[in-house]
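Ticket #4471: structure output looks truncated?

Reporter: J.K.
Steps to reproduce: submitted the chain below (156 residues) through the standard prediction queue, then opened the result file.
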Amino acid sequence: MDIRKALLNKFKIKLFFLQKMPMGFLAGMRVIKFTDQQCDVSVPYNTITKNPFQSVYFAVQAMAAELSTGVVAMDAIMKSSEKVSMLVFDMNASFVKKARSKIVFTCQQVEDINNAVKETIETGEGVTINVKSEGIDKDGDVVSVFNFTWTFKTKK
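Returned output as attached by the reporter:
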């Protein structure tokens, strides 16, 4: 299965979210771009995603930011045909500006993630990688920056 094509298909992404991430479905998240250079995930600003302070709730932002890095790892693992576990070991975030519009989270470390998965498969050892996802609003301003520490390890 080509996960990239499936994630970019509106019907298939809805099925993916319903099966694997129901909160992503409810929030209206979308994978809008997935190339060898980057993965972009959008999340709308609406009644379901906003907090009482009239901005996109931080947990919704974290969910979209994590997805922009996590689907890259899922893609690498699926292409390998090996059993590899993946886990967010650590996460930190900076909130630069109130998120009051649709936000697009971009991870530009596709090659780094692919190399980490490849390394754990080749060595059998656990591999840790730090990746960044940056949230940009409709005006092109950075609203938040998330840093995830992903760990990968082959399953016996």
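Triage note (M.O.): checked the attachment and the full token line is present. The CA atoms of residues 45 and 101 lie 5 Å apart.
Status: closed, working as intended.
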